[in-house]
Amino acid sequence: MGKKSVLTEELKKRFGFDTFKGNQEAIINNVLNGNDTFVLMPTGGGKSLCYQLPAMLMEGTAIVISPLIALMKNQVDAIRTLSSEDGVALFLNSSLSKPQIEAVKESIMSGKTKMLYVAPESLNKVENVEFLKNIKISFYAVDEAHCISEWGHDFRPEYRRIRPIINKIGDAPVIALTATATPKVQHDIQKTLEMTNATVFKSSFNRANLYYEIRQKNTSDIDKEIIKFIKTQGGKSGIIYCLSRKKVTELSESLNLNGIAALPYHAGMEAAVRSENQDSFLMEKVNVIVATIAFGMGIDKPDVRYVIHYDIPKSLEGYYQETGRSGRDGGEGQCIAFYSRKDLQKLEKFMQGKPISEQEIGKQLLLETAAYAESSICRRKLLLHYFGEEYNEDNCGNCDNCLHPKILIDARDLLCAVLETIELVGEKFKAEVIIDILTGKLNVESDAYNFEDLELWNSVKDEEVDLLSPAIRQALISGYIIKDIENYGVLKITKEGKKFLKEPQKFEVSKDIVFSDDVGEVAPRVGSSAADPELFSILKDLRKKYSKKLGFPPFAIFQDPSLEAMSTTYPITIDELQNIPGVGEGRAKKFGQEFVDVIARYVDENDIVRPEDLRIKTVANKSKLKVEIIMAIDRKVALDELAISRGLELGELLDEVDSIVFSGTKLNIDYFLHEVMDDERIEEVFDYFKNVAESDDIDDAIEYLGEDEYTREEVRLVRIKFLLEVGN
Question: What pTM was computed for the model?
Answer without folding.
Answer: 0.61
